[in-house]
Amino acid sequence: MKKLIWIIIPVILSCQPKHSTPVEDINAARDSLLTVYIEILSEMPTTPTPPATLMDSSRVILEKNGLTYKQYRRAISYLNADPEHWEIFYQEAMDSLKSKLKTTSPPPVIIPRL
């Protein structure tokens, strides 16, 4: 029985995935996705727009930021692994958008006295 265990353990360990994704790659893909997501939200039109147009503009933003489909899927998989990852992601996106709004708010309108 003990000999059998020594045979089974290496077999089980050899079944583990050989090419795991390094944490740095996942974090880089997640950060890139966050940048893309913020940009998409920032440029989202305020008027109804056909879904095809939105998809095209999203694809352009992905390409502009150098995020490949594989990196995109990796980041989504990471976020899907734990709901807390999504909460943190959305909070960071909202904080960034609020910060952008503060720095790009229009100057106050001064109405001259008559």
What would the keywords be for this entry?
114 residues; mainly alpha; 5 helices; 71% helix; 0% strand; globular
Structure at a glance:
This protein is mainly α and 114 residues long. The protein has helices at residues 2-14, 23-43, 51-64, 69-80, 83-103. It has one domain (21-100).
List the helices and strands and how they pair.
Elements: H1 2-14, H2 23-43, H3 51-64, H4 69-80, H5 83-103
Fold and architecture overview:
The protein has 114 residues and is an all-alpha fold. The chain has one domain. The protein contains five helices and no strands. It is globular. The termini are far apart.
Oligomer: single chain
* Overall pLDDT level: 74
Class from secondary-structure proportions = mainly alpha
Gross morphology is globular
First and last CA, distance: 100 Å
Biggest sheet overview? none
Total discrete domains: 1
The total of helices stands at 5
H-E order: HHHHH
**Amount of helix:** over 70%
Ranges where pLDDT stays below 50 over 5 or more residues in a row are: 10-20
Provide the gyration radius in Å.
23 Å
